[in-house]
Amino acid sequence: MKHITCIDDLRALHKRRVPKAFFDYCDRGSYAEETLRANREDMQAIKFRQRILVDVSKRDTSTTILGEPSTMPLILAPVGLLGMQHGDGEIHACRAAQAAGIPFTQSTMSICSIEDIAASVEKPFWFQLYVMKDRGFIKDLIQRAIAAKCSALVLTVDLQVIGQRHADIKNGMTVPPEWSLSKLLDFASKPAWVSGVLQGKRRTFGNIAGHVKNTEDLNRLAEWTASQFDTSLNWKDVEWVRSIWPGKLVIKGILDVEDAEEAAKTGAQALVVSNHGGRQLDGAPSSIEVLPEIADAVGDKMEIMFDGGIRSGQDVMRALALGAKSCMIGRAYAYGLGAGGQAGVAKAIDIIQKELLTTMGLCGVNRIDEIDDHVIAV
Ligand code: FNR
């Protein structure tokens, strides 16, 4: 980890250490990847105003997220299959987040179950929910999140229809999963990864296994899961979730002002401006492009969170300047996990915090609540 200086280094190491099918699953986007690219290109197009001779000796990244203290305006986003990037990946990522003093969000599509994580970490974590067709199962999942004392529910609303990632099909990351000689040879060339994953607690979807009969049959489990995405989902379902989840609710996957205004009526405390990291609607705008208008429209009614394309502390600063109160990262920490487990995730968080502190200093800012569009060059 000593020679790792940026998130790109973690990505390169992840790529070397983890089988191609899982690296690509993490790295790639849907269809022509226009939105995936736009997330980065639009971010990099935003330039800062350099300010000099301002006393920046008291810089501090601490803030609050959903009313709770956080050491920085950063959240680990829900990322599916973390346990395939590194054995017990969800537990390692959660521990790294808690040690750094920021929230971790567990995906519905995790390898470890809610209970596996709850038994392995000190503090509450957030749980991300996909509302599937089997509402009895979803109700049960929410009860499990309540029993595990999850401190927020992140309801993801942009996966009613599933965008296609060409790389996943080519790599056999399909339902059912496809095996090939080249895939097996690739696995065999990464023995450290194989033994790490085999030592992990579960090798299926931990939150779903147990619900589906014969879950030892991976094909069956994958097929059931894929058949459960509900194209009829609508705002009434959000009301239903609200009625059975008593805690803080975050609606994730908003890109449109009208949808943001609708979300503000649900009683949810926060929304995440997100295009699912360029993995869903290809051709949708970058998240950073739509952030200012959404923050203007509902920023006084809900906490605005942001994700999509954050690879540095500079990017966090850009999103805060354009109206976000905090940022989620997905790939940035998943690369860290693939590169080096918990230490790799800790490294990703540390890199971003240090870059944020430096950027604040060079823009003449000491506190997170001082960051607004004055730090942006027009
Ligand atoms: C995701 N994302 C995601 N979101 C969600 O709500 N539930 C999930 O299970 C997943 N799974 C998932 C897997 C992988 C491999 C990635 C990269 C992303 C989306 C994620 O929460 C977040 O919105 C994006 O990752 C943000 O973009 P960046 O930070 O990856 O550019």
Automatic annotation (TrEMBL):
Q: Which residues form a coiled coil?
A: none
Residues in the signal sequence? none
Q: Where is the FMN hydroxy acid dehydrogenase domain?
A: 1-378
Question: What enzyme class is recorded for this protein?
Answer: oxidoreductase
- InterPro entries noted in UniProt: Aldolase_TIM, Alpha-hydoxy_acid_DH_FMN, FMN-dep_DH, FMN_HAD, FMN_hydac_DH_AS
Residues reported to bind FMN: 78-80, 107, 128, 130, 156, 252, 274, 307-311, 330-331
Give the GO biological process terms. aerobic respiration
Molecular function in Gene Ontology: FMN binding; L-lactate dehydrogenase (cytochrome) activity; L-lactate dehydrogenase (NAD+) activity
**Catalytic center residues:** 276 (proton acceptor)
Q: Where does glyoxylate bind?
A: 25, 165, 276, 279
Cofactors, names only? FMN
> What EC number(s) is this enzyme filed under?
1.1.2.3
Supply the NCBIfam families for this chain: PRK11197.1 (NF008398)
What does the sequence similarity comment in the record state about its family? Belongs to the FMN-dependent alpha-hydroxy acid dehydrogenase family.
What protein does this entry describe? Answer: Alpha-hydroxy-acid oxidizing protein
Species of origin reads Bradyrhizobium zhanjiangense
Which taxonomic lineage does the organism of this UniProt entry have? Bacteria, Pseudomonadati, Pseudomonadota, Alphaproteobacteria, Hyphomicrobiales
